[in-house]
Specification:
Blueprint lengths: L1 E3 L8 H4 L2 H10 L8 H12 L11 E3 L3 H18 L20
Parallel strand pairs: 1-2
């Protein structure tokens, strides 16, 4: 199964048309842009071919690194639990007391 992120299609055109929303999304992406339909299609086509016959039961992310955002957030949350918020977090709602570790 392919799991695409934000791909520039008619479905997300309205979302990407709002500059502040689109810019915020792109700023958090490791690749820094939304995907293109041919990029998502390339992965799907490769999974349909004979060379991928041994690939079963997988969910392949085609998201330009979007999944890494969640991993980074979990890493930061774990650090807050261990060490508490640093001075850059002063005044924010994040604190060691309100973050539950993922274990």
């Amino acid at each position: 199964m392919a799991k695409p992120g934000i791909v520039a299609t008619d479905i997300v055109a309205e979302l990407l048309a709002v500059p502040s929303t689109a810019d915020a999304y792109r700023a958090q992406m490791p690749i820094g842009r939304e995907g293109q339909p041919d990029e998502a299609a390339a992965m799907v086509l490769s999974l349909l071919g004979d060379r991928a016959a041994w690939v079963t039961g997988q969910c392949i992310g085609i998201d330009g690194g979007n999944a890494l955002r969640a991993a980074r957030r979990a890493f930061v949350d774990q650090a807050l639990v261990r060490e508490g918020p640093g001075p850059e977090m002063a005044g924010s709602r994040a604190s060691a007391s309100n973050i539950v570790p993922n274990n």
